[in-house]
Amino acid sequence: MFATYLIGLREGLEATLVVSILVAFLVKSQRRDRLPQVWAGVGLAVALSVLFGWLIEYTSTSLLARSEDRELFEAITSVAAVVFVTWMIFWMRRAARTIAGELRGKLTEALAVGSLAVAGMAFLAVIREGLETALIFYSAAQGAAGDSGPLLALIGGIVTAVVLGALLYASALRINLSKFFTWTGALLILVAAGILKYGVHDFQEAGVLPGLNDLAFDITSALDPTTWYAALLAGMFNVTPAPTVLETIAWVGYAVPVLLLFLRPTRRKPTSTATTGTERGADTGTEAEAATTPQPA
């Protein structure tokens, strides 16, 4: 359940900070009359994200009768989720310094067009996070079919993110979002490695990949699957005591290089004093906008 909580927290906080930037900009610009359009766009994005998540689950459980088709569908969604996770964490790492300014610029253009453009801009800013969350959650929770725990954990993560975002907007809380996104990004890479491993296993069960019975190792005697810590490792990172050779290659082959690339130091481009002031949210006076422009790790 920790994995789905982390997904809800990470994706939820990104979406919450995006909404905070839009709301803070409208308040600062004395355009509170456009706030209903922003919330309408956000609400529509949330509704469609929930519908997308339901559609994935319905397709898997109701439309696919054969177990082989279901396994193949789950494998494909797992691979897609890994692609989205990888793209998301590297995108945030690269774009964190400029996202606030870009959103303000797009919202300025939308205000000049009209209310529908404002709602559409807010919708597009949030829908990406929502669709990613639905897809990643489905893939991460496959191993807990019939259990409501992952869904409750996801909701808990989203609620936590909304509370944190509200406190940041109200300047009642200060957190180092650069470190937050670095640590959660690293953990999500391990979660994605587990999702990829699960996808490989589904491909093997569907008969697409060979080696379903070729185990890389078997440490069941040392890591009893019935123990709480084994269940924790399996639920968080899909670490199991008897994986196949291909599952192990997939887990290690993804986790090691992606972690090294993500955690490597990056060279910071020199910026002028004026630019630095803008990135820190000095022109808005709100901690929420400042918080959305952390220095990349």
Question: Can you offer a commentary on this structure?
Answer:
By secondary structure, the protein is mostly helical. It has one domain. The protein has 11 helices and no strands. The chain has helices at 2-28, 35-63, 67-95, 99-113, 115-140, 149-169, 177-205, 228-237, 245-263, 273-279, 287-291. It is elongated. It starts with a helix and ends in a 6-residue tail after the last helix.
Give the H and E element order: HHHHHHHHHHH
Supply the number of helical segments.
11
Uncertain segments are 272-297
Biggest β-sheet strands, sense, barrel = none
The tally of domains stands at 1
- Average residue-wise pLDDT: 81
Structural class: mainly alpha
Number of strands: 0
The dominant shape is elongated
Alpha-carbon distance between the two ends: 27 Å
State the helical fraction: over 70%
The gyration radius over C-alpha positions equals: 21 Å
Strand percentage lies at: under 5%
